[in-house]
Amino acid sequence: MINRILLTGRLTRDPHFEITTTGKRFCRFTVASKRNFRDKKTNKYESDFPSFICFGDVASAVADYLKKGDSVELEGTIQTSIYKNDRGEDVYQTTLVAENVYFGSKPKKQTSAPNDNAADGFVNNASPPQSQTQAYHPTDISVGGEISGVQY
């Protein structure tokens, strides 16, 4: 069996970075991702807004380099946990854990100048050169979320 998520989209808000009392770094963010089909009534594409979490060096990189509107490609897993709520009932929580985060292009700027994006290194919203693309590949993640290694 395979537990793998592959998703592309844009951040809906700036990532939220935290450090636990034990020193573990984590970052939460939400991605808007367009579906492959259109709504029959409006003829517009529908979107989903899944929330992700990442840990360790990947969390630090996401918090340092990404902001609302930035494009990302994510690889990760789905993890489900169970906890008891105030009434003693079991509550199932599903978490999408981003293990690999690939940084994409910046959002289009609303301007009349044809190459206004050139200052950012992205001309006409084309994909950035490979030297400007950041990719983080954690080699190990345990349930609960500590990443032990990152290859650049």
Task: Considering the chains and any ligands shown, give keywords for the structure.
disordered C terminus, mainly beta, single chain, 5-stranded mixed barrel, 9 strands, 152 residues
What does this structure look like?
- It is a single chain.
- With 152 residues, the protein is mainly beta.
- It is built from one helix and nine strands; from the N terminus they run βββββαββββ.
- The chain has a five-stranded mixed barrel.
- It is globular and about 45 Å long.
Question: Helix content range of the residues, please?
Answer: under 10%
* Assembly form of the protein: single chain
Shape annotation: globular
Instruction: Name the helix and strand elements from N-terminus to C-terminus, one letter apiece.
Output: EEEEEHEEEE
Strand order of the largest sheet: 1-3-5-7-6
How would you state the average pLDDT, rounded? 77
Structural class: mainly beta
